[in-house]
Design goal:
By secondary structure, the protein is an all-alpha fold. The chain has 21 helices and no strands.
Length: 521
């Protein structure tokens, strides 16, 4: 009964944004729920299409040549890495950052029950991501082979068990991050560095495995070691291998749960060491209210590793892309061979990368129950909202500016092209920042138990990411469709006018209704 109650609590916490209106506390209408379902189906269909493109070439090259078992092992690795990349930091937040940890630990609830309940919502996410990749790979497999009972049973078992294994690995990584950073002085910085290092390693392995072909699968066969060799053989022809893979996977999942449940209480009970500091009087330099608000926003964002890793991914991607462009600029120029690319296409590319940043989308919601502190300050509420927008602008537009420099160097763009990229990217970042604030003030909520809900699963984040991508597509797609027919400068001019109108509308709303919504949260 206790465990069932914990599961029910985690279920409502994970999915309440889709069923309940967080602003009013009322249940959403069937039409709204259906609209959210259609939106998610659209996102999932795009994800399935991505998996299809990844696996289709591999299936066509490997399966007809007798490498079906290796193909299945390859599909499990790729699908698991995709789910692992998105859920590792979420496991850490769910286990160690939930606001009701102290309450649950004080109740007569066993640690393994808390651990399993915490991992439930993450398992649902892994089930959607990993199982979609596997299902796509299995469908492509059956295109080249006949459907047999063993493969059908194995496919159903893998769709349930492999996401569980992915969750166990993510849980183990999250537990290790918590263990390593429990006594760190700069805990959030350590979490960020460890997570980025892990993501980089996963990305390198993913890129290496995605590039395998039928000609080198023989030399790469040792990659598929135990128990992945059992998974491939069990799916294709060997019932005993299938049984052993299921048994090993289940034992691994339970072993990880046992390890986490034994250590989670100890990690949560770690107290910071107190240091004796001799007081020395010194002059305090006064700063303006604007600088104080900016410093507050900066500390709030960068003191939360989950916030940085999920809301500033676009900045990291743009910086990596810029470094690559600076290093390989001459080789890129040689590869193109003088091919002319319209400036509007580069503008659309930069806007698409900026769309991944959603710093303002959870900005008000993450104030939590302490929002009354910022509401009661003797400053204009509009300045508080403007500080949030400015932080988004600074940490998104500067990487976009560096990326624009890299594009100009690699593709030999003119100074006029660089000026266009600067103006368009600045307008887009301002619009996306105000759009995120608009969605947070309309759909956000300060009542949550886990910050991951506000940062990753809230309606404001979902709307902001979707609308930002659609807004970037308005310049990216026409640049491809009308390439060579319409001048790129004209497309950028029209796009800049559209962005200017949207910026004016959003700013006007923020000055009146936005301030009221902020003060009433």
């Amino acid at each position: 009964m206790r465990f069932r109650a914990l599961l029910r609590k985690e279920y409502y916490e994970a999915f309440r944004a889709f069923i309940w209106n967080q602003k009013t506390g009322k249940k959403r209408s069937p039409g709204q729920v259906a609209g959210f379902a259609c939106l998610y189906l659209l996102i999932l269909s795009n994800l399935v299409n991505t998996f299809r493109q990844v696996f289709s070439l591999t299936a066509a090259a490997w399966i007809p040549k007798g490498f079906g078992a290796q193909y299945i092992s390859h599909a499990i690795i790729i699908s698991s890495m995709f789910g692992l990349f998105l859920s590792a930091i979420m496991v850490y937040s769910s286990l160690f950052k939930a606001k009701d940890n102290e309450i649950l630990l004080s109740l007569p609830v066993k640690p393994w029950e808390i651990t399993c309940a915490r991992l439930f919502s993450v398992y649902v996410t892994d089930l959607l991501l990993t199982a979609m990749g596997l299902a796509t790979a299995f469908v492509l497999y059956f295109r080249y082979t006949s459907l047999n009972p063993l493969s059908a049973i194995a496919a159903l078992l893998y769709l349930i068990i492999v996401p569980g294994v992915t969750l166990a690995i993510a849980g183990l990584l999250g537990f290790l991050v918590g263990l390593l950073t429990a006594r760190m002085r700069h805990k959030q910085a350590g979490i960020t560095v460890l997570t980025l290092a892990g993501a980089l390693g996963i990305g390198m392995v993913f890129a290496r495995l995605s590039g395998l072909s039928a000609s080198d699968i023989g030399s790469q066969a040792p990659v598929y070691v135990f128990p992945l060799d059992l998974a491939g053989e069990g799916f294709v022809s060997n019932p005993l291998s299938l049984l052993l893979f299921v048994l090993v996977s289940v034992l691994f999942i339970f072993a990880v749960i046992f390890i986490i449940s034994r250590g989670v209480v100890r990690i949560l009970g770690v107290t910071e060491k107190q240091k004796r500091v001799k007081y020395r009087s010194s002059m305090v330099k006064a700063s303006s209210a604007w600088k104080a608000l900016m410093e507050r926003e900066k500390r709030k964002v960068f003191s939360n590793a989950l916030y940085v890793l999920n809301c500033m991914t676009g900045s990291l991607v743009m910086m990596i892309a810029a470094v690559v462009l600076f290093i390989f600029s001459s080789k890129i120029g040689e590869m193109l061979g003088g091919v002319s690319v319209p400036v509007s296409l580069f503008a659309g590319l930069i806007c698409l990368m900026c769309a991944v940043n959603d710093v303002t989308a959870p900005s008000v919601s993450t104030e939590g129950k302490a929002i009354w502190l910022i509401q009661s300050l003797p400053v204009d509420p509009l300045k508080v909202l403007a500080a949030k927008v400015r932080l988004h602008f600074v940490f998104t537009w500067i990487p976009a500016l560096i990326l624009a420099m890299g594009l100009c160097l690699a593709f030999g763009l003119k100074p006029a092209d660089f000026a266009v990229l600067v103006v368009v990217s600045a307008l887009y970042v301002l619009v996306s920042a105000n759009l995120g604030l608009f969605n947070d003030l309309r759909h956000g909520s300060t009542s949550y138990m886990n910050e991951a809900v506000a940062i990753k699963q809230s309606m404001s984040v979902l709307y902001t990411l979707g609308e930002g991508i659609l807004l970037a597509v308005l310049i990216f797609v026409p640049s491809i469709v009308f390439s060579g027919k319409v001048n790129g400068y004209i497309l950028c001019l029209v796009y800049a006018v559209v962005l200017g109108v949207l910026l004016y509308l959003l700013t006007s709303w923020k000055k009146k209704d936005g301030v009221k919504a902020f003060m009433s949260m």
